[in-house]
Amino acid sequence: MRRTLGKLNGERKTFCGTFERSGTKPSYRSGLATITILLKDIRDVEGNVVCDHLWFNYTKGFQALFPLKNGDVIQFDARVTTYTKGYFGHKEEIQIEKAFAE
Hints:
Elements: H1 3-6, E1 12-26, E2 33-44, E3 49-57, H2 60-63, E4 73-79, H3 92-101
Antiparallel strand pairs: 1-2, 1-4, 2-3
Protein backbone atom coordinates (compact mmCIF):
# COMPACT_ATOMS: atom_id res chain seq x y z
CA MET A 1 0.00 0.00 0.00
CA ARG A 2 2.86 2.42 0.69
CA ARG A 3 4.36 1.98 -2.77
CA THR A 4 2.25 4.93 -3.94
CA LEU A 5 3.62 7.04 -1.11
CA GLY A 6 7.16 5.83 -1.84
CA LYS A 7 6.96 7.22 -5.37
CA LEU A 8 6.61 10.69 -3.80
CA ASN A 9 9.86 10.38 -1.79
CA GLY A 10 11.47 13.80 -1.29
CA GLU A 11 8.41 15.74 -2.45
CA ARG A 12 6.40 18.18 -0.34
CA LYS A 13 2.68 17.77 -0.94
CA THR A 14 -0.71 18.45 0.60
CA PHE A 15 -2.52 15.43 2.04
CA CYS A 16 -5.58 14.70 4.14
CA GLY A 17 -6.34 11.90 6.55
CA THR A 18 -8.97 10.83 9.05
CA PHE A 19 -8.07 11.06 12.74
CA GLU A 20 -8.41 7.66 14.39
CA ARG A 21 -6.77 7.95 17.83
CA SER A 22 -3.78 9.18 19.78
CA GLY A 23 -1.00 7.12 21.30
CA THR A 24 2.50 7.39 22.78
CA LYS A 25 6.02 6.27 21.99
CA PRO A 26 9.20 6.48 24.06
CA SER A 27 11.18 9.66 23.43
CA TYR A 28 14.59 9.21 21.82
CA ARG A 29 16.58 11.30 24.31
CA SER A 30 14.67 11.52 27.57
CA GLY A 31 12.84 8.20 27.58
CA LEU A 32 9.62 10.05 28.41
CA ALA A 33 6.53 9.36 26.34
CA THR A 34 5.97 11.40 23.17
CA ILE A 35 2.34 11.86 22.12
CA THR A 36 1.47 10.61 18.62
CA ILE A 37 -1.66 10.60 16.49
CA LEU A 38 -2.90 8.02 14.00
CA LEU A 39 -4.39 9.19 10.71
CA LYS A 40 -6.09 6.66 8.41
CA ASP A 41 -6.96 6.73 4.71
CA ILE A 42 -4.21 9.19 3.74
CA ARG A 43 -5.06 10.83 0.40
CA ASP A 44 -3.47 13.45 -1.83
CA VAL A 45 -5.39 16.59 -2.81
CA GLU A 46 -6.75 14.84 -5.90
CA GLY A 47 -8.38 12.24 -3.62
CA ASN A 48 -6.05 9.35 -4.51
CA VAL A 49 -5.25 7.01 -1.60
CA VAL A 50 -1.49 7.07 -0.93
CA CYS A 51 -1.45 4.81 2.16
CA ASP A 52 -3.85 3.22 4.63
CA HIS A 53 -2.45 4.81 7.81
CA LEU A 54 0.42 6.88 9.25
CA TRP A 55 1.52 7.79 12.77
CA PHE A 56 2.57 11.41 13.39
CA ASN A 57 4.14 13.21 16.33
CA TYR A 58 1.60 15.48 18.00
CA THR A 59 3.24 18.71 16.79
CA LYS A 60 2.14 22.31 17.37
CA GLY A 61 0.28 22.23 14.06
CA PHE A 62 -1.84 19.29 15.22
CA GLN A 63 -2.20 20.76 18.72
CA ALA A 64 -3.81 23.86 17.16
CA LEU A 65 -6.66 21.55 16.05
CA PHE A 66 -7.31 20.31 19.62
CA PRO A 67 -9.60 18.67 20.56
CA LEU A 68 -9.52 16.10 17.76
CA LYS A 69 -12.39 13.61 17.61
CA ASN A 70 -12.46 10.20 15.95
CA GLY A 71 -13.49 10.76 12.32
CA ASP A 72 -12.19 14.33 11.97
CA VAL A 73 -10.60 14.88 8.55
CA ILE A 74 -7.33 16.81 8.69
CA GLN A 75 -5.53 18.47 5.78
CA PHE A 76 -1.77 18.92 6.15
CA ASP A 77 1.40 19.60 4.19
CA ALA A 78 4.26 17.13 4.52
CA ARG A 79 7.50 16.11 2.91
CA VAL A 80 7.61 12.40 2.11
CA THR A 81 10.73 10.67 3.47
CA THR A 82 11.81 7.13 4.24
CA TYR A 83 12.35 5.77 7.72
CA THR A 84 13.70 2.63 9.33
CA LYS A 85 11.39 0.98 11.82
CA GLY A 86 12.87 -0.04 15.16
CA TYR A 87 15.47 1.06 17.71
CA PHE A 88 18.87 2.12 16.45
CA GLY A 89 20.49 3.49 19.58
CA HIS A 90 24.09 4.07 20.49
CA LYS A 91 24.73 0.68 22.05
CA GLU A 92 27.33 -0.92 19.83
CA GLU A 93 26.27 -4.50 20.51
CA ILE A 94 22.66 -3.77 19.47
CA GLN A 95 23.81 -2.20 16.21
CA ILE A 96 26.02 -5.21 15.48
CA GLU A 97 23.15 -7.64 16.22
CA LYS A 98 20.82 -5.73 13.91
CA ALA A 99 23.42 -5.75 11.11
CA PHE A 100 23.73 -9.55 11.30
CA ALA A 101 19.94 -10.02 11.49
CA GLU A 102 19.45 -8.35 8.09
